[in-house]
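Quick log. Single chain, no ligands specified.
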Amino acid sequence: MKAINTANISAAQQPQTSWQYLLSHCFTDPVSLAKFLQLEPEQLNFSAQASGEFSLKVPLPYAMRMQKGDSRDPLLLQVLPDPRELEHFPGFVTDPLAEADANHLSGLIHKYKNRVLLMLSGACAINCRYCFRRHFPYDDNKIGSQQWQKILRYIENDSSIEEVIFSGGDPLATSDQRLDKLITQLGQIKHLQRLRIHSRLPVVIPQRITDQLCQTLQKTHLQTLLVIHANHANEFDLQVTEALDKLKAANVTVLNQAVLLKGINDTVASQKKLHTASFAAGALPYYLFVLDPVQGAAHFDISDSQAQQLVAELQRELPGYLLPRLAREIPGKPHKTLLAI
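-> predicted structure:
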């Protein structure tokens, strides 16, 4: 990972810069990020120790949407290593969804009926501080060519599997060429019906949505969905909208799921703006998750009752198609748990 040199990429040049370059040249130290945001380093509530455990990583397109001079910018607070991450709270653990119990093959998680999740990449475009997989053993779940053949056989031998979910890390950190190969091979399994991709890359580096990727997604017979992850209205800009337009033109259904985060989007006004902006950009609101109790993220947590009250108020502000489902994932349950409002 190379530190970014913003002097080499102007605002006008940035849309044409390759996604690979933007992925490999990120803000990784607080001094550079503070300078870019026209702040003094001491204005950032930055913890070097927290960054040592889970590093700071912010790509330029995302940083450009942060408000200059604002140390409390809601996009900045999602990615800035905070001293509170070092505190330990009861119930906040390294594997909050007990995924190790469903990790039946390296790179494969099978915990829900009719669908399996594949860890295509351990790499991410951005390190979100609330990430429930911030402690996940990606090195033990790499999918090489031999492991891929085992995964294909696993899916082929279970005719109940109708859907494959690409996850990670971020699956779109994988090259177009590799994605084309994997999707083509999955498309040859007769009982598969759907491909779902969960990715933050269309939001944080919208240049990732290339013509080649869209061609791959359009040519497969599998019904294809792409679930983006955006938590604040300010994460959407013209570049993100253009990327989502390309996906929809390739017959991809685009959804957005968000996490309810204290101090980021825990008001009715911020939630209304988020889901309105998501829909305007081309992504239908899908889930609004309460925080998974992952170690290091307790400072983002709000109670289920507060979340339910917020969404009950939000329901009065939005039409039904803009209202996401409030949910929690509970280990061992055969499905997401919807929180009644």
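Residues 257 and 287 are 5 Å apart (CA to CA).
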